[in-house]
Amino acid sequence: IIIKRQVFKGKQREILALLSELRYGALQQPGYISGETLVNHYDPCNITVVSTWQTIDDWIRWQESDERSGKEDQLEGLQEGPTNFEIYDLGPPAVQ
User: Fold this and answer.
1) CB neighbour class for 59 (10 Å; exposed up to 12, middle 13-18, buried from 19)
2) Containing H/E element for 26?
3) Per DSSP, what are the bridge partners of residue 43?
4) What separation, in Å, do the N-terminal and C-terminal C-alpha atoms of the chain show?
5) Can you say how many angstroms the Cα of residue 80 is from the centroid of all Cα atoms in its chain?
6) Given 41, 51, 88, 92, which residue has the most CB atoms within 10 angstroms?
7) 4 - beta bridge partners?
8) How confident is the model over 52-81, as a mean pLDDT?
9) Residue 64: pLDDT over 70
10) What's the angle, vertex CA 54, arms to CA 50 and CA 59, rounded to 5?
11) CA 60, 61, 62, 63: dihedral to nearest 10 degrees?
């Protein structure tokens, strides 16, 4: 899962603290594998999180959880626009 946020200038520390709390919560979730937070070198208000899950269902359960929703509401208040979620699969696409 690629999660992109454009943060208000001066709010980076606050949002990074909230993202750390979210990662700690994700560590407790079934199916969570790993996560990274990337801050754009040239635009530190552009923050991307790469979150890896065993299955899309594991991610959806976490995304829809009350714990995550509450934090997401806080994060949205520190951003210039909505969070952009992109879902990718590892490897070649499944043949349908």
Assistant:
1) buried
2) helix 12-27
3) none
4) 22
5) 16
6) 51
7) 48, 84
8) 95
9) yes
10) 60
11) 40
